[in-house]
Structures are given as C-alpha cells and as structure tokens.
Specification:
The protein is α+β, with helices and mostly antiparallel strands. It has 21 helices and 25 strands. A hairpin with a 3-residue loop joins strand 14 (338-343) and strand 15 (347-352). Helix 13 (422-430) packs antiparallel against helix 15 (470-479).
C-alpha cells in the first residue's frame, strides 16, 4: 500500500521534474537563439584546466576559450594565434682574458662586416646572428681564434638533497662567481652551469660549500667544453589589438608568466622537453615581443608553442602554485573566440568574445542521465550528445569522430634473443589483422598509419602499415629456420618461438587488444604470454631498464619533429628512452639533423629520409587510433552530406569559419 502510494505521488513529481528540466533547457536554448548549439554530456562539470584536460570535450572547450601563441590549423600547418610572427636567430658569447682583447676581437670582426650586431661587455664579446646556420658562427670564430678566447665549460651538479639554498649561499660569498655565466636548475636536486676560463679554484670552493653540513655529497660532472657559447633565440611578436576577456590587453608578459610557470612545474605537458631547454625569457619592444633564449640548438622547440594556451600574468600572480581547484574556483580569462558567460554545477554557456564575431553560442549540460538525453532528443532541444551511446545512434543520423590524440602500438625489444631478428618483427606485423581488431574491440577506433609522427601534420608521411598476410609471415619464419610443428607452433630443435607481451592492467581496451593479438600470433606459430602490469611506475621502470620482450603502450601524439630521444643510440642503454634498443650510426646522424632543423619548410624532407631508414627495421607495430564519438542532429554546422559521418571534427569546426592568416618568418631583425 505504501509502495503504491509512493508511486502514485512520485510519478507526477518525476514528470514535473522532467518537464522543468526540458523547459529550462529550452529556455537556455532560446536564450542562445538560432545561433546556439546545445551539447549534452554525462560527465561532471570539468575543471577546465587548459593544460591538463581530463577528457577530449574538456580539451575542446578550453580550445574555444583560450588561445596559444601559435596554432596548428586545419591543414596541419603552423598558423598565427596570439603571436603574428616569429623569427629564429642565435647569440654567441666569447670570453677573453681582459676587456682590451675582447675589443680587439670586435674591431677585427667589424672590419669584415660580420656579424650585423656585436658589442663588448666587460671581457665578453657578444655576437648576434640573424640566421640559424652554424656556418657563419664558425667563420666568425676563425677570424678571432688567434686572440685565444677562453673556453666555456658545461658542468652538472647532482645531489640527493635540495641544493638551491647552498648554491645561493655559495654565489653570495664567492669572489670567483663572476666566472659563472649561465645557471639552469633541473629540479630541486640538480643544476647545470656554464663557467668561463680556468675554473678549478671555483669548482673546489663550490664542492666544499655543497658538501659541508649533513647533506649528502654532491656529484660534479663535466658535460662538455666549447670555444664560444652558442644560444638559439626565438622572438615571438604579439599581434596588436588582442584582448583578454576581461578587457585587458594581451602582452608578451602574459606569455612569459605562463611559460615560466609551465617550465618549472611537473605537469605532464606535450613537448615538455622543449620547455625545459629555455634558458631565459625577456619582454621587449614595450611589451609586444617575447625574447626566448634556449640552452642548446633545438629547432623543434618552436613546436612547443603550438596549441599551448596562454593565460594572463595577473591570474598567475594570484595563483603562483595553481592547482586543478584554482581553475574550478576562479576561471582565468581567455583570449579565444569564445568566453565563459555562465558556469554552475550543471551547465556552462560560452558566447562569442566579440559582437563582431559570427560564431554560435554553446550550452553544455553536464551530469546528464540517459533518460534526460532521450527527452532532449525527443523535444528537439539538443544538438549534440557526447559521447554517443547505442540509443543515441538510433535517434541521430550523424556520428562525429574527434581527431586522434593517441594510438596503440607494440614496441619490440630489438635485443631479445628472438625479436632481435628484423625479419621476425616483420613477420609478426604481417600476422596482425588490424581491421579484425577494430571490429572486435569496443569504442570508436581508426586505422593508424606507420609514420613515426602524429597524423595530419605538415610533415607527417602517412607511411602505410604492412598489409595482413599470414601466409607470407609463416614463410618468413620457415625461411629463417622456424617451421611450424604438428601443433602449429614455430620452433627450432632447441626452443619454440615464444616471448612475453607486457600490457597495462585495468583497461578493457588494452586487455582485449592484447588477448586478440595473442590469438592472431598463435596462428603464425608464436607462443605469446601476457604479463599485465598494474602500476604505471612499474611499467615505466621496466621500459627504462629494458626488461621486456614486447610491450603494448599508448603513444600520445605531439606537435614535434624530434625523434632523437626514442631512437638515438645514446639513449639505447638502460635508463635511456630508446626502449627498443635501436643503434645505427646513420640513423643517429639523421636524428641529429632533424633535431637541429629550425625551418619548418625543410622538416618534411628530413622526416622522409629518417623514416626510409628506420621503418624497415620494424622497431614498433602500430595498431589503431582511438577517437571520441558524438551523435549530432542533421544540418549542424560543419556537416557533410546528411547521414554521413564527419571525421576529425572539433567544436571549433562547429563555429563559423574565420579568416586564417599564414604565419611567415620575419626577415627583419
């Protein structure tokens, strides 16, 4: 009786609640007008940390609100954003025994008309070259070589305990501190510095200071010695007339404050290594230019500024140790095409940042239940459901797939007793039917190419995967002396064809993909044992120590053309990041040339040369990319033909197209 009474009273309340929700959504939609797009999401309201988005939708919302210095456009090329131009140059510093010798060197170089900019500061000769080629630097140094510039040495200090306080104490007290020309802290327990001239006395004093007291003894390592310090410089000019959403002008100081926080934080950012190479940053030209000096020649550093959001310096000032909670409590003003108009526990409204901007407004409803979604679809008050369920697909005629952010790959340990054979790695690749994997696995998956680089970039080669050919794969094993026995296992007289595949535990996609791979390789004749690893740190340690046969991992795509950490022989020893153990002198040279390329125009040719040499070694097996899937109403902006999927869309594609300016390097100083 009580239950019946509850149902009788509760059902009208439920209907009333649903009616209220529908009316509220409709009201928001009408507030938006015909130019509004209503999006329904089951997830909670995101923090909207533009640097650490937890989901793809959070990343795309932040992309509407915040703007980077440079952007990767729809065609995959660099385009202007907050910065409208960029220019590489390089500074060279030589130290002499005294100021008089430095001035003699200056006079000699000026007599030959190079470089364009040079001056003396104390016993240092400072040169500036407008090009990044090292040839001009070498020619200039040959002119003054007989004046015997003092060598500059690179040193690294490491200690198990923090050393910043002791370092500051030493530099405040030492009379030799003038020899220290550059300092760079690599975390709290490590430091690198450049010292000019004879440095033994300085090093002895430094060691005494750092080793005094209860601290652990420090380790002092010489990294290298050069005749002159060469530092690449990147100038980024802020586009005039750009404003934050609070009405304040965007300046280079905002970019400097953002990059200063990010490079000293421990956040897992894309292209983080490039940010770590920053030596110093200066604001020039009355706040319109960011002058960034790097510690070494590293052309791909430019990619670190692409799609990296900038925030106002004033916001960083009030949040010097920003956390996820800070972004939730106090959303920073952006400089993107959309601004946050309303934000509460269940919804978010974005409106165009300018009245002159022809773009739709967005209403995001969060924590939406499947029932609410169905009501929204039936009342025609929703345009997009993300992610899409089977029920959503039945009511919407268009499916939209986000661009891939990562792909699943298998890395081979090329020092394994069996997998060291290149032909065996090729055979294992031929035996994998990726189309069958995609059909059998949950989620929206896409075919991946075999290129080392992210798809869609201007230098990506779209190298083709090996086609599925089980018979050819079996023939390779037989030709190499590993025929299959009566049980179908490939073996030699002394052992069978077997290895272990490490897999991240706890993820359904990884687990099922690994199981299907084992089944496909079993048909080849390979006996593969799965070893799930539950802790990310444990898996990372196994990779660093090269204690694996093969490993299934997610490869996150980055906007960079540097592959040196992953394939250079200097990183092939335990502790390095060349987990596969590839060691080839010619590949090393190609990797070094690519990492030293500053001109994006020349990157594609170097990439093709590298992949032509590296990919035939089959160091990895690419499987598939992963995508988000959303259900959309017909006629939503950015649509293709009605009923047809629209691949690689983003929320930016739903907005009215804006004119795009091509970013070109400046030729002036």
């Amino acid at each position: 009786m009580i239950l019946a009474r509850t149902l009788i009273l509760g059902f009208p309340l439920l209907i009333a609640a649903l009616a209220w929700w529908s009316a509220e959504t409709s009201r928001h939609s009408h507030v938006q007008g015909k130019d509004g797009i209503v999006v329904m999401l089951p997830q909670n309201v995101p923090a909207l940390n533009p640097f650490l988005p937890e989901t793809e939708v959070e990343r795309q919302i932040s992309d509407l609100v915040h703007e980077p210095l440079l952007r990767i456009g729809a065609e995959g090329a660099l385009q202007p954003a907050l910065a409208d131009s960029w220019r590489w140059s390089q500074d060279v510093t030589c130290w002499f025994t005294d100021e008089a010798t430095a001035k003699r060197a200056l006079v000699r170089l000026q007599a030959q008309g190079r470089p364009a900019t040079a001056h003396v500061k104390g016993n240092a000769l400072l040169l500036s070259f407008s090009e990044t080629a090292i040839t001009g630097v070498q020619q200039a140094l040959e002119v003054i070589a007989d004046l015997q510039p003092q060598p500059a040495a690179f040193w690294r200090i490491e200690r198990q305990t923090p050393l910043r306080e002791d370092w500051d104490r030493f530099t405040a007290a030492s009379t030799l501190v003038g020899q220290i020309q550059r300092v760079w802290f690599d975390g709290p327990n490590a430091c690198e510095f450049v010292v000019s001239g004879p440095a033994q006395r300085l090093l002895d004093e430094l060691r005494v200071t750092l080793d005094s007291g209860p601290q652990q003894p420090c380790t002092l390592t010489l990294l290298g010695e050069v005749g002159a310090l060469v530092e690449p410089v990147l100038d980024l000019d802020i586009r005039p007339g750009r404003f934050w959403h609070d009405g304040k002008l965007v300046t280079a100081e905002d970019a400097r404050a953002t990059l200063e926080f990010l490079r000293t934080s421990d956040w897992p950012l894309p292209n983080r290594d490039a940010l770590r190479h920053i030596q110093s940053m200066q604001v020039q030209n009355d706040g319109s230019r960011l002058h960034v000096t790097f510690r070494k020649r590293y052309g791909p550093a430019l990619a670190a500024f692409a799609d990296l959001p900038m925030l106002p310096a004033a916001w960083w000032h009030h949040h010097p140790a920003a956390t996820k909670a800070d972004f939730s409590r106090d959303s920073p003003p952006g400089a993107g095409n959309h601004r946050i108009a309303t934000r509460n526990a269940r919804s978010l409204i974005l409106t165009p940042a300018s009245h002159d901007l022809e773009a739709p407004r967005f209403l995001f409803n969060f924590s939406v239940s499947p029932l609410m979604t169905q009501i929204g679809m039936r009342t025609h008050t929703v345009d997009l459901v993300w992610p899409a369920t089977a029920a959503d697909r039945a009511h919407f005629t268009q499916m939209r797939f986000t661009p891939p952010r990562q792909r699943l790959v298998v890395l081979w340990n090329t020092r394994h007793e069996i997998l060291q054979n290149t032909r065996f790695r090729e055979a294992l690749g031929l035996a994998v039917d990726t189309s069958a994997l995609i059909r059998a696995l949950p989620g929206r998956l896409g075919h991946a190419d075999a290129s080392l680089f992210a798809p869609g970039l201007w230098f990506s080669t779209r190298a083709q995967q090996m086609p599925f050919d089980l018979e050819k794969a079996r023939t390779i094993l037989a030709d190499e002396g590993w025929p299959r026995d009566v049980e179908g296992l490939a073996r030699r007289a002394d052992r069978s064809f077997r290895f272990t595949l490490l897999t991240p535990a706890g993820d359904t996609l990884h687990r099922r993909a690994a199981e299907l791979l084992v089944e496909q390789w079993r048909k080849l004749g390979a006996q593969v044992t799965l070893e799930p690893i539950s802790e990310e740190q444990t898996l990372a340690q196994r990779l660093r120590e090269h204690r694996f046969d093969a490993v299934l991992v997610d490869q996150r795509f980055e906007v960079s053309w540097d592959q040196l950490p992953w394939w250079h022989s200097s990183q092939a020893s335990p502790g390095g990041t060349n987990f596969c153990g590839i060691a080839d002198p010619q590949i090393d040279l190609q990797l070094e040339a690519l990492a030293g390329e500053f001109d994006p125009v020349h990157v594609p040719a170097r990439v093709r040369e590298l992949e032509a040499k590296l990919l035939p070694l089959h160091p990895l097996l690419t499987l598939f990319t992963t995508h988000d899937e959303a259900a959309a109403v017909p006629g939503l902006p950015g649509s293709a033909n009605a009923g047809a999927p629209v691949p690689d869309w983003t929320l930016r594609t739903l907005a009215a197209p804006l004119p795009v300016l091509q970013l070109k390097p400046r030729t002036d100083k």
